[in-house]
Amino acid sequence: MTENLNNYLNFLNKEQREAVENVYGPSLVLAGAGSGKTRVLTYKILHLLVKKLAFPGQILAVTFTNKAASEMKIRVSSLLNYPIDKMWLGTFHSLSAKILRSNAQLVGLKSNFVIIDSDDQIKLIKQICEREKINLKEKSPKYFASIIDNYKNRGIFSDLLTAQKKSKDYQSIKIYNLYQAELIRLNCVDFGDLILHCLKIFKKNKDVCLKFQNLFKFILVDEYQDINNVQQQWLEILSEGQKNICCVGDDDQSIYSWRGADVSNLLNFEKNFEKPRIIRLEQNYRSTKNILECASYLIAKNHGRYGKKLWSENNDGDKISIRGFWETKEESFFVSDEIEKLISYKTPLNEIAILFRVAAHTRSFEDRFISLGLPYKIIGGLRFYERKEIKDIIAYLRLVNNLNDDLALERIINIPKRGIGTLTIKKISFISRNHKISMFEALSKFIENSSNKINIEISEFIQKIIKWRNSKNHINHVELAQLILEDSKYIEHLEHQEKNSKNPENLNRIENIKEFLETLKEFENLEGFLEHVSLVMENISNTSGETITMMTMHAAKGLEFDNVFLSGWEEGVFPSKRSIEEKGQKGLEEERRLAYVALTRARKKINITYVNQNRYSYASHDFNSPSRFIDELPKELIEIHDSINIKNDNFIDEFSHNMNSEENYISPGRRRLIQNKKNNEVDWDLNQDFNFEDSFSIEGSRVFHQKYGYGKIINFDGEKAEVNFEKSNNKKIFIKYLQFIK
Q: What angle do CA 367, 369, 371 make, to 5 degrees?
């Protein structure tokens, strides 16, 4: 035993030490950002073992990731200088699997059961739906998987659910029951079953339940704010024996409700556990005083919280800088310039991060960094041009541009699904090689002398490609992309995915497409854009050295950097309009917690940016307001640098004068603006909502709508336009959701 084991408590501050030494009874440790919660958990395990209050096998320590469990085990082992392999340390799922292996027969399984992944889960549900003759176009297997997962997260067993045939839940409950029966037959479980089966065992087998209650003398839980209802039940049952449970969490950092996390478990701790002790860790070791003051001031606006105030012995540090820009390119130019300054001050790239509310917003930064040769990586997601939906639409454009592009054709011939499977594609490929022709030419040969369903789909696909290729000569590349998205029903395909899945990746796909269309506007033609993409994909392969980090705010939790840029602080983007519409006040408070998490990732410096122009201006004529969260920051601790030129009467003159010296850095739209100014042809539109006094000024205009496609305005009442869409009935649409086609 090392000398440190005699004075290890001296390495803790007063509150940390209190949390470590308080071992009996239930306790909740409210650990603020950067307050040393990992140290508390590690030293608490150490304390239990050093004081011989428990053997390793009598301690149950629950973490949220296997990585966190492994790191904690290594830390404790290194402090003790001997292994603690017998300790029950892991995630809810890994620990439940261990319990279930030794008691599998009690729920109709064998001990060698297989844990299936989400892909196998979808396949199994699809088979069941097909047997039950359920229309998968209305409700996909992913939809039913999401419903089943929701039931399991709430601790609801399938055999306890019943519903009348006319009930809206009847179909889902039936699939849930059939799915569970099939899993048992196959000796399989999904991830939700691991915990749920344990609950069933504990509730129906008192002897087994008592065995584990007596075994676990002390229970420790990390990231308690992120647990769901079934995990809460699991903890309550196991802690009922010895009643020594210590949960560490932060209600101000609960940001994962979309995956089942329920902060009310933490907020109701005093109701769920008898006479608990509440300990607050408020000393922050990470950030400057100004950053902490801003974060605390913001989160205090929330009502659903215990309440705590972070403080630090660090220096005051810089004020938070807030800058508004007219467009996204300005924003990315500013951030890249600031990063260049940091590099000149010898700041490591690994200490620079850019955080976004929406993953799609990385695109303008990626393009800028690539042009400057600044290495970057995206954590928790793909680079913009590597995302599935972006690669899909690029493949469509590649094929229309070059009918010999076999790789592009193979990618999108069955996206959205047209019933053209792998075997059919192999046959087409064989014809292509055998006749030494492109796969597109081989399609026509494949469908000769046959009119089955697949061949009809292929024939329609050929006709669409030819139509788009002909249209390429009459419309610009942005309109071409919009036409392809409409005719191929790709947007409908994404909307269906969004509706039937709670996967946040699916929720962002349409946003990514909007951002993609904005990207196209920066190029004169399709060929120029496709060449740009090729160069981008070639240049992003090397990220082995130090890199700038880009990620969503959700992915940033638990990380920290010296310099943090927070992009996209616009109302409707952040806080998310979707979150507020779906969850009301709860949604707003979770968005504010997300802002708190973002702010507390920084050690030294924070730059917040927002863009005045709508990021998806092709589909809207809104003028963005800065996020309400900016208004909620303490005025004395922030520096606001707004797009004041927009407010000045001499905006065009100043803009033209200031930009003349750096013409190479001006976007195509701005270059045209400056040239028009020189030619006295300025026609300036601030991109706000339309306000036409005479309705005849837009009646008869051709427009594009993201969902309904192309049409002509036949009536306008000042707010809404009645549009006769080419492929739909007449619709009344708010004017701001229409793009005017010249």
A: 70
Catalytic position from the list 152, 305, 601, 603: 601
E strand or H helix at 61: strand 59-63
Amino acid (1-letter code) at residue 723: V
Give yes or no: 601 in active site. Answer: yes
Catalytic pick from 37, 329, 592, 670? 37
Catalytic one of 18, 38, 289, 562: 38
Q: Which one of the listed residues 222, 327, 331, 511 is annotated catalytic?
A: 222
Sign, Cα dihedral of 176, 91, 233, 84: positive
**Is the link from the previous residue into 26 a cis peptide, with omega within 30 of 0?**
no
**Torsion angle in degrees (nearest 10) through CA of 101, 105, 108, 112:** 40
* Cβ 199 vs Cβ 234: under 8 Å: yes
Closest listed residue to residue 505, CA positions, set 393, 377, 389, 394: 389
**Alpha carbons 160 and 695: distance in angstroms, whole number:** 60
Contact predicate 612/324, CB 8 Å: yes
Instruction: Identify the active-site residue in 91, 253, 613, 739.
Output: 253
Give yes or no: 604 in active site: no
Report the mean per-residue pLDDT for the chain.
84
pLDDT tens digits for range 172-220: 899 999 999 999 998 989 989 999 999 999 999 999 999 999 999 999 9
Instruction: Give yes or no: 37 in active site.
Output: yes
